[in-house]
Write a structure and sequence with these properties.
The chain is 71% helix and 1% strand. It is an all-alpha fold. It is rod-shaped and about 135 Å long.
């Protein structure tokens, strides 16, 4: 998981808006609510404090620097005020001063110092409700950024007890904090709350919220709900990574047809770039009786350098072309596969393919290479292929020898014996014709 979106400067600055309102002497009755509402909820403060005219002028000097984004200049003025004037400030005025410090340090990306000053704000006795709420929420965000997730949770819970209207953002931040602490059940409760608040208003949940929800369900081994969230992601945020994740989840629950369709979408988006991904898609096509599409995936992958021309991969390609009735395309690939293999089994299969295509000479050559390499799984079947090929060449004696060897294997004995009888009869017939 990446850093939560609430680290954005605009979000932090929004939480300090109440302090800027102090420049008109009295805090406006406005409390912090979730940024996604894009409006502030009206809140009647129980505690309202005013700045003295002198402090107002002090803060006006700071404001001049912040409006120019001169953060070092603003910090210099604040340090001067802290040293020379803060002892004469009221508790509320000090809290306002510390809040300015927090804002400036945040803008300088000194989060450690920003946290220290926001904590000083909360330590003051005189706090308006708006200032207390804004500081609690801002400090929770900064604690999260600094990976103090327990601290962020404690502050968010305190904020929620004081805030009359809680939007979706705080629940999402709370969920992310629990997730980082590996407290998945609490993370789930809060991210579900955040998403429900959005969906009840007919709004599409934020992408990173759905990503978090998916991750939590996955960690809890809840495949059913993980799938539901992924389906939302591909609907609202149709990125290739979500299609790939959806495919993977369909595979886990044995829904291979949906697994294939999801992965095919990712492929069409150009998101399958590794050999493993491409071969996985090809095997899924084969499993769904779409050998031509499987062959196209492997063929393009090899040509693009994404799939290595290993004996195994070429064999799969040849098999896919063969199943697609593309014998002319299958044979060259099987030849390459056989030449790259350290065993003779592929040459044995190649001999059978040659025989099927009536390429007798090639079948005999491939068969001899298979015997020479060894490592043949079904030697009896190769003897059958060799016997038939030799018989077609009218080489009856060696054909009978191969059939006899095949007959020593019980799996081929009956078939081989039938061929022996046939070849002997054919041999006698030919001899009579030659008399």
């Amino acid at each position: 998981m990446g850093k939560w979106a609430t680290t954005d400067r605009s979000r932090i600055r929004a939480s300090i808006a109440a302090i800027l309102a102090l420049l008109i002497c009295v805090l406006s009755p406005v409390a912090h609510v979730a940024a996604e509402e894009k409006q502030k909820t009206q809140y009647r403060t129980k505690k309202t404090y005013a700045l003295s005219e002198r402090v107002f002028r002090d803060f006006a000097r700071v404001q001049e620097k912040t409006e120019a984004s001169d953060w070092p200049g603003a910090l210099s003025i604040l340090k001067g005020l802290e040293k020379s004037r803060s002892s004469t400030y009221s508790s509320f005025e000090k809290a306002s001063l510390w809040n300015y410090f927090g804002w400036v340090y945040y803008s300088l990306e000194d989060y450690h110092a920003a946290i220290a000053y926001y904590e000083k704000v909360l330590a003051e006795e005189q706090l308006s409700d708006a200032l207390q709420l804004g500081t609690l929420y801002t400090l929770a965000q900064l604690k999260f950024v600094q990976e103090d997730y327990k601290g962020a949770i404690a502050l968010l819970k305190e904020w929620m007890t004081l805030q009359p209207v809680v939007g979706a953002d705080p629940y999402a931040l709370l969920a992310q904090s629990y997730y980082q602490l590996n407290e998945m059940k609490q993370a789930l409760v809060n991210i579900n709350k955040a998403i429900t608040l959005y969906e009840e208003k007919g709004k599409i949940p934020r992408e990173n919220w759905l990503v978090l929800q998916r991750a939590v369900y996955f960690e809890l081994d809840d495949s059913k709900n993980t799938l539901k969230v992924l389906e939302k992601l591909v609907k609202h945020y149709p990125k290739a990574i979500y299609w790939k994740q959806l495919s993977g989840m369909f595979g886990q629950v044995g829904r291979e047809k949906e697994q294939l369709h999801s992965l095919e979408v990712a492929y069409m988006m150009g998101a399958l770039n590794t050999e493993k991904e491409l071969l996985n898609l090809a095997y899924l096509f084969l499993g769904q009786d779409a050998p031509y599409l499987a062959a196209k995936v492997i063929d393009r992958g090899i040509k693009a350098g994404q799939i290595e021309e290993t004996s195994e991969n070429l064999e799969t390609l040849a098999m896919a072309w063969s199943m697609s009735r593309e014998a002319k395309k299958a044979l060259p690939q099987m030849e390459k596969a056989a030449s790259k293999s350290d065993k003779g089994d592929l040459y044995a299969r190649l001999a059978g393919i040659y025989l099927e295509n009536d390429k007798i000479s090639e079948a005999l050559v491939a068969g001899e290479k298979a015997f020479a390499k060894g490592g043949i799984k079904r030697v009896d079947q190769l003897h059958i292929v060799m016997g038939i090929s030799l018989m077609k060449n009218k080489q009856y004696v060696p054909a009978i020898e191969h059939f006899s060897k095949a007959a020593t294997d019980e799996r081929s004995k009956r078939f081989a014996d039938q061929w022996i009888a046939y070849v002997k009869a054919e041999k006698e017939r030919q001899e009579k014709l030659n008399i």
